[in-house]
Design brief:
The complex is a heterodimer.
Chain A lengths: L3 H20 L10 H10 L1 H35 L1 H16 L2 H12 L3 H25 L3 H9 L4 H38 L5 H10 L3 H29 L4
Helix pairs in contact in A: 2-10, 3-4, 3-6, 3-8, 3-10, 5-6, 5-8, 6-8, 7-8, 8-9, 8-10, 9-10
Chain B lengths: L1 E10 L2 E11 L4 E5 L6 H9 L6 E6 L2 E2 L7 E4 L11 H5 L1 H6 L3 H14 L15 H14 L4 E5 L7 H17 L3 E6 L2 H7 L2 E6 L4 E7 L11 H18 L1
Parallel strand pairs in B: 3-8, 3-9, 6-7, 7-8
Antiparallel strand pairs in B: 1-2, 1-4, 4-5, 9-10
Chain lengths: ~240, ~240
């Protein structure tokens, strides 16, 4: 049942889409039918999968980097009120800047290669990770904190044996938000300047009105995002059975 | 084992405790009873070293208490278990924090869990246990370091009446087997009479010692025992006095 209903929903939407393209006689270069999209994919499957792998790699490595930077940053923010006051507003400001606006500058700084895309992904991912980790660590119940005090626990014990593990379910909330943003960040980077990746494919196909190719690339992006999201949910259930 | 000399404590400008003098002997079980807000918990936290008295001094085993000691354990109203740790790991938490080797204490942890009827549950996670079982784990955790003093802050008050009775009888059994110096805060007269050698009645705002009642009854005692009723009645009278 868990799988059947979403699949039914998906099939219903695809059916309606297909029907609409036939009934209204919509030109394929405006809205291609599902068959056109699949056909396009089958023409160049190797090429599209290769581009998808590039985008996937950008998204995943940027996401990983955002965790590696974001979690310690959250630890610092929770650990020191001075640091929190100094950097928290900056972080909020950074998040408030539309990432699309930063993308061209990032490309100017880091070039057309993969590093500018990874940086874009880090920029979009890091904020939810820092916020969820920090607020999770601050939400540790009073009696647990008092238990550690009553054991005269060192600060690092309170952090690593109590606050951080306690925050993990919340951290995962941030991670799940971030992982979908990661794919978006990679695509934005590729739009602005790239020679590979699904975002590049989409912006290219826009140029020569190959809408079917754009749809095929978008479908791959959607599958990628969904797979990443559910992969993370699965990891969460395995790692945190108590949450 | 524990001495309080002229201890007062104020939070901001609210006086929580005033002029408390109390001596608790080795292996003595003292219950502290009073209405909510009479400073019972504050008293316990002062002995634990979680709070520093505004006036007077607190001694444990002859030393002035400046911070929490390893030979004093604290048991809370909530089980305060770490949800990601198994029962066994939760019991061994103090050992880890103190930097001792877990291996050396594993047998003792098993013994303690057996003692409270949790043998076989070592690998379970807290969310798989009932409220009463969790509080038993918490009891084992506060016994693992073989504390000289156990401080208990209404440890059974979050439980249902039946489990509560069960656990207070169990605590009596544990205390007979592994005698410790205990200060037990409660607002249940029955619990106090069942468990304590002496019962301190606190009057509220600021908390002062209204009276200390001796319970000279042989152990093991049972709830509902006629001899206990007499003490209960006396306590009920005393508590009525301090509300006025």
């Amino acid at each position: 049942m868990k799988v059947v209903l979403p699949v039914l929903g998906l099939l219903a939407i695809i059916g309606a889409w297909w029907l609409a393209t036939i009934v209204f006689g919509i030109e394929p270069f405006l809205v291609p039918s599902p068959a056109d999209v699949v056909g396009e994919f089958l023409e160049v499957p190797g090429y599209l999968l290769e581009q998808a792998l590039i985008t996937l790699w950008e998204a995943v490595s940027g996401f990983g980097l955002a965790i590696v930077i974001g979690v310690p940053l959250a630890l610092l923010i929770v650990g020191s009120t001075v640091l929190e006051r100094m950097f928290y507003p900056l972080l909020v400001a950074l998040n408030a800047v539309p990432k699309v606006a930063i993308a061209p500058i990032v490309v100017v700084w880091f070039g057309f290669g993969i590093s500018s895309k990874v940086l874009m992904v880090v920029l979009v991912c890091i904020f939810p990770i820092v916020i969820s980790t920090a607020s999770g660590m601050k939400s540790t119940p009073g009696e647990l904190v008092e238990l550690f005090r009553s054991l005269d626990a060192a600060r690092h014990h309170e952090f690593f044996k109590l606050r951080l593990p306690y925050a993990l379910p919340q951290v995962f909330v941030g991670l799940k938000v971030s992982i979908t943003l990661a794919v978006i960040g990679a695509v934005i980077g590729e739009f602005v300047g790239a020679s590979a990746g699904l975002g590049f494919v989409i912006s290219q196909s826009g140029g020569n009105a190959n809408t079917s190719l754009a749809f095929a690339a978008m479908t791959l992006l959607a599958i990628m995002s969904v797979a990443l999201f559910y992969g993370l949910s699965f990891a969460e259930r395995k790692l945190l059975p108590y949450a | 084992m524990i001495s309080l000399h002229g201890v007062s404590h104020t939070f901001g400008n609210v006086e929580a405790l005033a002029g408390i003098d109390l001596e608790v002997g080795e292996h003595e079980f003292v219950a502290v009873i009073g209405r909510s807000g009479c400073g019972k918990s504050t008293l316990l936290r002062l002995i634990a070293g979680l709070l520093t008295p505004s006036e007077g001094q607190v001694l444990v085993a002859g030393d002035r208490v400046a911070k929490p000691r390893r030979d004093v354990s604290f048991m809370f109203q909530q089980p305060a278990l770490l949800p990601w740790r198994s029962v066994l790991s939760n019991v061994l938490l103090p050992i880890e924090i103190f930097g001792f080797t877990r291996r050396e204490y594993r047998d003792r942890a098993h013994e303690l869990l057996d003692l409270v009827g949790l043998g076989g549950f070592e690998k379970r996670l807290p969310h798989e246990l009932s409220g009463g079982m969790r509080q038993r784990v918490s009891l084992c955790r506060s016994l693992i370091q073989s504390p000289r003093v156990m401080l208990m802050d209404e440890p059974f008050s979050a439980l249902d009446a039946i489990t509560r009775t069960e656990l207070s009888e169990e605590l009596q059994r544990v205390q007979l087997e592994l005698p410790r110096t205990v200060v037990f805060v409660t607002h249940s007269i029955d619990e106090a009479v069942l468990l304590a050698d002496r019962i301190v009645v606190l009057s509220p705002r600021p908390g002062r010692i209204h009276k200390i009642v001796d319970v000279d009854l042989p152990r093991p005692r049972a709830l509902g025992q006629v001899e206990l009723d007499q003490v209960s009645r006396e306590l009920r009278g005393l508590l009525a006095e301090v509300t006025a």
